[in-house]
Amino acid sequence: MAESLPEHDRILQEIESTDTACVGPTLRSVYDDQPNAHQKFMEKLDACIRNHDREIEKMCNFHHQGFVDAITELLKVRADAEKLKVQVTDTNRRLQDAGKEVIAQTEEIIRCRVQQRNITTVVEKLQLCLPVLEMYSKLKEQMSVKRYYSALKTMEQLENLYLPRVSQYRFCQIMMENLPKLREEIKEISMSDLKDFLESIRKHSDRIGETAMKQAQQQKTFSTALQKQNNVNYGRNMHLGRNRILESKNEITLKRTFEDEDEHDEEVLTAQDLVDFSPVYRCLHIYSVLGDGEVFENYYRKQRRKQARLVLQPQSSMHETVEGYRRYFSQIVGFFVVEDHILHVTQGLVTRTYTDELWNMALSKIIAVLRTHSSYCNDPDLVLELKNLIVVFADTLQGYGFPVNRLFDLLFEIRDQYNETLLKKWSGLFRDIFEADNYSPIPVANEEEYRIVISKFPFQDPELDKQSFPKKLPMSQSVPQIYMQVKEFIYASLKFSESLHRSSTEIDDMLRKSTNLLLTRTLSSCLQNLIKKPHIGLTELVQIIINTTHLEQACKYLEDFISNITNISQLTVHTARLYGLSTFKDARHAAEGEIYTKLNQKIDEFIQIADYDWTMSESDGRASGYLMDLINFLRSTFQVFTHLPHNNNDHAAMSGKVAQTACMSACQHLSMSLMQMLLDSELKQISMGAIQQFNLDVIQCELFANSEPVPGFQGDTLQLAFIDLRQLLDLFMVWDWSTYLADYGQATSKYLRVNPSTALTLLEKMKDSSKKNNIFAQFRKNDRDKQKLIETVVKQLRSLVNGMSQHT
User: Fold this and answer.
1) Buried b (16+ CB within 10 A) or exposed e, 544-558
2) pLDDT for 522-538, tens place per residue?
């Protein structure tokens, strides 16, 4: 009982200190306690309530007198507040009555001031609008009298100065909408004038160009006459028009520089005398004001480019007469004279960069046209007149500042094109000579026939001179014929070179270059084609090598021939040399290569008919038939090389060298083909019997190499071609793997030329063959030991191959 009392006190304290919403758990603890605890708690609660009531009563008794005093004072103040309210209400009523009249007068003043401000605003806006209307009226008047440039200025003032001030008004919006239409109208009218101008200059370009070219030609004639009169050696001057200057910045004066004493003075024409340039000036100004100056420049340049393309397009029959070329050149000169005038009298419409670009485009087109049409010119006089026109054309345009070096280069191209025609003709002559040749030494029966040959070809051989008739010259019949045709070509080329009025030195240089082209291109091509023809055999190829040697030696006589007809010493520093040496050397090399190629092809044909039984148990005891046929073919072929006629040591050395190289190449190719046959990936199995049979074939190859099929080899040089095969076959025949593996990598190794990967490939093929052919090998001790040995060697070879690859 005594323990429950403190617990009830704690619960009461929690109830007093806890929020009312959270007393539930506290009250629940009263009911969860001992029996009759609820009754005891209620008694305790009642006692607590009585205590609180007594405390409240004491506090009220303490403050009661002060409360009474405060209520009394408040009742006194209420009476004074009622009086004050009555006074304030009366004062407010009287103030409202007095302010009604003031408010009415104030509103009237505000209304008058608003009216006054509106009137002032209307006056100000009218003052702003009147100038706009006046300017627009002025614009309409200017448009009616076609003063478009002034109209544009007026529109600019309207847009930038006047209309922004009154842009909020509807009539201004209408004006703003009309201004772009007026501008477009002005642009269309100006563009129409420009088109008329472009049409005008297109029509008058030929007259302008003809006058300019005529005066440039007169200036050149006058300068030439002046040089002769003063007896001053100025040489040839192809650029006299360079010193011509513009008389005025606003016009192009095509001056007359040469006058005959009996002729009347002619009127000096200018570009403005033939064409009115005012439309282009006016249009340029209008577009500049509109801010479309760049658009106008692009349009003008685009249209002029189109006109340039039309001018540069020649007539299909232009090449038939000189007048066709003259008309073509006149139109081009007139076009660029106008462009030069526009360049100097306007700012920005045409720039030097633009004219240079346009000229470069035109120059490329002109050169292409002249190249094409000059190729149709078969008349030498017409070609010469064309050259004179090109010179005048170039002089005229160079006077206006256009670079014309490529035109002067074109003169040499025209000459080269003439030479091209000659080269085509001589190519046919060379082919006919080669077709008719029998590729055998020239037989001479007597002194007269010998004289006839050496009169055509400079041949000298003291050893041959000592021999009695009949005898044979080392070269074939085509050699003197080719030499005579080269001289005829030089004569034909000289005819055109003389028409260029060049100095003897220049003519000499031209002739040598033309002859070089004949030798290095035409004759070289004919020789190369001849060598590649299938009907040309090994004997003919050897004769071609001899022929090219004599033609090469004759080149020095051709140089003497050119020097004699041009009177220019070969000792001159700038004299070109003939490059026939390289031509004939290349032909010889090609012929030698063709010999080696034909031999290798023949070897391949024999190899293709080889039919080995790679699974045979024993060899046949004799070499394969295909190989014996191949060796017999090689032996007979090299005998033909050996028995060729050698009239001097040079020919003998040359034939011997070719034969030796061919023999070595054939042996190497044969060895490589046999090796490839063994290592062919399609060949899966090789028996020891097949190896023995293959060894017999290689022995025959070695016997052939040892028999010295071609004299001149030192020691066993030729046999070394088969050394790789020999060491490989010895390794497998002797089965000397211990020695190979022990000495591998040493310079003194017996099997130095045997590559581990090659040996591994061949050994794996033999391993597979042994497994297939010896099904019961596992029951025979010897076969088992052999298989284990092969597997051991294979592992060691693979380690060597892997070591080589890692080292690499």
Assistant:
1) bbbbbbbbbbbbeeb
2) 888 998 898 888 888 87
